[in-house]
TrEMBL record:
Renumbered residue ranges of the record's region Disordered: 77-96
Domain annotation HTH cro/C1-type: ranges: 99-153
Keyword presence, Isomerase: no
Origin superkingdom: Bacteria
Keyword Methyltransferase: no
Protein's UniProt name: MerR family transcriptional regulator
Key words of the record: DNA-binding
Pfam families according to UniProt: Cupin_2, HTH_31, MerR_1
SUPFAM superfamilies assigned: lambda repressor-like DNA-binding domains, Putative DNA-binding domain, RmlC-like cupins
Organism in which the protein naturally occurs: Shinella yambaruensis
Residue stretches making up the HTH merR-type domain: 8-77
PANTHER family according to UniProt: HTH-TYPE TRANSCRIPTIONAL REGULATOR, METHYLPHOSPHONATE SYNTHASE
Length: 271
């Protein structure tokens, strides 16, 4: 006997179950209170857990009179504090949960961190719950804000060292930024971050960032534009390489109409 398929509700159905209007659900989504899934055709669909969350939001709003920021904090307090993913399939959610744990340890509110980083509170709230929806630069800035690195947040140092990594057997960073896939070419605690970047058309860092160390980028296919210090532009194609100090502010974008694949090495592992 096969496993039962999870139930999904359309906007109107979820709104009726929560006792609110469909437009209210869309408003709560923009406020980062709930993030529905999407069907293959792009339509919103709510799980049973989403509907339960909607009912809690409605209760906090009507019975307690809380504003969106207070509702977010109240919902966070209800969620378990365990930040360890229970399975590999849930690993992508770990980055957001780790950042939320770091924020709590620092005694910061969502509004404070969002203001310091320069993102909307709803974006940060959504990311902490789903590990989705922030750009590459914002992810770096959040890690730097808490005195850690993206590599550590992604669990790269927790993996056992492998001296040989066969083609197609790469571990993956959680896909937190749209269009950016990062494959780990060397596991464990190393003096170098060695990655294979696969960038969808138009994927970018969405701004410049910097950190300690030195970097080497080699283009396997496609094209990428690298910008150093805001004025030094490099258009790199297949076979081209670039070496630079990581303390220089660097930004990048896939200018190719297809995927761009890079080898990207950073030492020491400070990203």
């Amino acid at each position: 006997m096969g496993s039962q398929e999870p139930v999904h509700y359309k906007v109107a159905e979820a709104a009726r179950l929560a006792g609110v209007s469909a437009s209210t659900l869309r408003l709560w989504e923009t406020q980062g209170l709930v993030v529905p899934g999407r069907s293959e055709t792009g339509h919103r669909q709510y799980s049973a857990d989403d509907v339960a969350r909607l009912k809690r939001i409605a209760w906090y709003r009507t019975e307690r009179g809380l504003n969106p920021a207070a509702i977010r904090e109240a919902l966070e307090a209800e969620e378990p504090a365990n930040d360890t993913p229970s399975s590999e399939g849930e690993a992508h959610q770990g980055v957001g949960r780790k950042l939320r744990s770091l924020r709590h340890a620092a005694g910061k509110t969502l509004d404070q961190v969002a203001g310091d980083i320069g993102v909307a509170t709803s974006v940060l709230s959504t990311f902490e719950r789903t590990s989705q929806g922030v750009t590459f630069r914002v992810l770096h800035d959040l890690a730097d804000y808490y005195g850690t690195t993206v590599s550590k947040l992604s669990g790269e140092e927790e993996q056992e060292n492998r001296s040989v990594v066969r083609a197609g057997e790469w571990k993956f960073w959680p896909e937190t930024s749209p269009g950016v896939t990062i494959q780990v070419l060397a596991d464990g605690r190393n003096m170098m971050d060695c990655h294979r970047f696969v960038l969808a058309p138009g994927a970018s860092s969405d701004g410049a960032y910097k950190h300690e160390g030195e970097e080497f980028v080699h283009v396997l296919s496609g094209r990428i534009e690298m910008v150093l210090d805001g004025h030094e532009f490099h258009d790199l194609g297949p076979g081209d390489s670039l070496y630079f100090e990581s303390c220089r502010r660097h930004a990048w974008r896939n200018r190719h109409d297809g995927e761009t694949v890079l080898i990207w090495i950073n030492t020491p592992p400070t990203f």
